[in-house]
Automatic annotation (TrEMBL), chain A:
Keyword terms of this UniProt record: Membrane, Transmembrane, Transmembrane helix
Name the record gives this protein: ABC-2 type transport system permease protein
Chain ranges passing through the membrane: 55-73, 85-104, 135-159, 179-197, 204-227, 273-291
UniProtKB/TrEMBL annotation, chain B:
Entry keywords, A to Z: ATP-binding, Nucleotide-binding, Transport
PANTHER family, per the entry: ABC TRANSPORTER, ATP-BINDING PROTEIN
Molecular-function GO term, any one: ATP hydrolysis activity
Name this polypeptide is given: ABC-2 type transport system ATP-binding protein
Family the UniProt entry places it in: Belongs to the ABC transporter superfamily.
Record-annotated ABC transporter domain positions: 4-235
Cross-referenced InterPro entries: AAA+_ATPase, ABC_transporter-like_ATP-bd, P-loop_NTPase
Amino acid sequence: MSTETTTPAPAGVIHDIGYQRYAGARLGRRYVAGSLYVHGLRTAFGFGRSAKAKIFPWLIVAIVAVVAAGLAAVRSQIGQVVLTYAQFADAMSWLVIFFVAVVAPELVSRDLRSGVLPLYFSRPLRRADYALAKLAALVTAAWLLLGAPQLLMFAGAAFTTDKGMGGVWDELLDLLPGLAYAAIWALVFASVALLVASLTGKRAFAAGGIVAVFLMTTPIVGVLMVMPSTTVNRLAGLASPSSLVQGVGVWLFEEWLVTDTAAGIGIGRFGPVYGAAALLLIAACVGLLLARYRKVASA
Amino acid sequence: MTLIATQSLTKTYGGRVTALSDLTVTVEPGVVGLVGANGAGKSTFIKILLGLLAPTRGRASVLGLDPTTDAAAVRARVGYMPEHDCLPPDLSAAEFVTHLGRMSGLPKTVARERASEALRHVGLYEERYRQIGGYSTGMKQRVKLAQALVHDPDLLLLDEPTNGLDPAGRDAMLALIQRIGAEFGISVVVCSHLLGEVERICDALVAIDGGRLLRSDHISAMTSATDVLAVEVSEGIDQLAARLTELALPVRRDGRLLLVPLADDQTYDSILRAVAELDLPLHRLDQRRHRVAELFAPRETASVH
């Protein structure tokens, strides 16, 4: 028989407890991918990073916030709607180009450069989950960039409305298409940008490549727009991601996007073509992104 | 339980470059050295064990699991320290190791606690909130080890853990690995091209060359059988060699030394008697442990063209 008794350690004594094995919970795929998503979203806005990494994203956030606050102020003072919610997303889209051009390389090129991928892929995390978590983080960040200022405008309009709850409800019905339109911008821009950024470990190259893809294609649209054929003119927007999204916006949200002051781009009856092209573009980018991460850092 | 077992494991890249060829080996728990020259197939072997590469032919099992079909389960229980740089310079070690702990499925607070613990065990407690970019090579190697340790694996795969370290750093890293094996109760596979290093800390050695298995055995089996006596006399070395040969002892000349395989205690007596009879001035007679390095040395140098 063992007569051994455990004597409680005297309080106030520091022990070297040595190595402790871990027998607790090991959470599964959803938690791991979710953690990576949250980490990516924080990285996008520079949280948990150096002050230097916060400058650029917050500069852009400041610009869109100031514009939104200005619009809300104009509306509450003189009652004029300068930009609808959807038009706001349209007007700010060029800022999204720069935002994804800086943030996408932060999310993926940095990992390629520092060689950290083998550490991820030697863990239970799947390669596809890594790519999709990063993509989701960038889409969310871009959507927040366009969507959060719309909430600011909505709050301004809702508090100053003189039509009571009915006015707030009408405002909400205007806001939702704006948020949906912002989501389309975010999806298209994030998937294109992340794919380009995943090809190189050099952040400057990645940023340049992303801006090039978005801006270099714009002249093509311009040329096609002045071709003699109306059909070509109507389909010209397909040539560039920006005009593609605008085309989808005109097709889906014409009521909110095309007003007396803003014509939107002419797409004629080709709206569904723009919709299909946008879906195809997103699918192709995601497919190529997944293919890229099946191979990268495996040998 | 068997730690690692492979059967006719073969890996060819593009059908031409053969990294592993028909490798069949069984490894028991403990600290195991995986040795071979650069390009011998060590890293390929490790990557197959992690399920990062699929073997061209043959099978592997790690902790009783098949890494090609059950990669996630294997990786949850294995910690991997790559050979190359794999650390982001702009994060602190604490943040980085915590993040990777979560990537291994540790809940948030547990990940933070265990990251601190892992960094303390590798000797980086004080510096853990500094950015990794400012660390020395030795400290970076320790961070790499800490991230492999953070989720309390059952097996650690360390690819050239002493790479780039100075002699003191090497000794510290080797002592740490030995401690992980002995005190933490975690099996370790240490890849190295430096036999002299790993043989000091390993229970068993697996030597591969050109993707083929050279030898796999307990370290004791490799060293004990090869003990030799080194005899040094200041003159008459040829006379002594001739006399010992007459006594049916297989003598080998090594510079100013005579090497005689140690069969039993009789060997000592025979040598001493021969020296006394020839009246030679004996400088030295000691037992020399045959370094494992010498076992593989001829083949190793042959493979490094």
